[in-house]
Write a structure and sequence with these properties.
There is one protein chain. By secondary structure, this protein is mainly alpha-helical. It is built from eight helices and four strands, in the order H-H-E-E-H-H-H-H-E-H-H-E. Strand 1 (47-49) and strand 2 form a beta hairpin. Helix 5 (100-119) packs parallel to helix 8 and helix 7 (157-168) runs antiparallel to helix 8. The longest helix is centred in the first third of the chain and has 20 residues, at 23-42. 30% of the residues are buried.
């Protein structure tokens, strides 16, 4: 782990080498990052570069990583903060020093960043809980981009239930309650994947008004 931690620090240092130090120095730094990524992949390491290439994180299944990357890109086209929150959630869940509580919190914020402006544009205090209530009570007002078995636009039950899962699963949001509990690593990873899907759906307009 000492070697991994040193490599993580060096990647952070290399990420700060920009064009202000000259294009050649920038290319050298980028080349070093790419070479490290190649060594980690070839060696079958459990670690790989973070999405921003400024540190290390645990290697995840390629389809999951691609889903996250696509969600970040879609989110940033609509609301830049959402992409930042989603990246922070991923790093907190899969970084060399995981923080499940931060991962879950950032996952919720990522969904709020794209969903609040879409579903609660006039609310003075929008939250994911309010988004959940709005969609739950107005299921007949919204549809999904995919069709149901009759060929009509599908209802939003899947989106509502995914939001319910994300909202109710954050058991450390409030302390002192009978069901309050620390966020587990498994719950944090689940939250990040659920948030990536929701962010992608909302950013792309796959959940929309009729």
């Amino acid at each position: 782990m000492l070697v991994i931690e040193v490599a993580d620090v060096l990647l952070d240092i290399l990420s700060n080498v920009g064009y202000q130090r000259g294009p050649q120095r920038f290319r050298q730094a980028d080349g070093l990052r790419s070479e490290l990524d190649r060594v980690l992949t070839t060696g079958g390491s459990a670690y790989t570069l973070k999405p921003d290439r400024d540190g290390l994180c645990l290697r995840v299944e390629e389809n999951l990583r691609r889903t996250l990357d696509e969600a970040v890109q879609a989110a940033e086209a609509l609301q830049k903060d959402a992409g930042a929150h989603l990246r922070e959630a991923f790093v907190a869940a899969y970084g060399i020093k995981p923080n499940p509580s931060v991962a879950y919190s950032q996952a919720v914020k990522a969904v709020e960043a794209v969903a609040n402006p879409v579903f609660l544009p006039k609310s003075p205090e929008p939250t994911l809980g309010a988004v959940r209530s709005t969609l739950d009570q107005g299921r007949n007002k919204y549809v999904m981009a995919v069709s149901d078995r009759a060929g009509a636009p599908a209802g939003i039950d899947a989106a509502v239930e995914l939001i319910n899962l994300l909202w109710h699963g954050q058991r450390d949001r409030h302390a002192g309650g009978p069901t309050s509990a620390p966020v587990s690593q498994e719950a944090a990873e689940t939250a990040v994947h659920a948030a990536a899907l929701l962010v992608h759906w909302v950013s792309k307009g796959y959940v929309r008004k009729k």
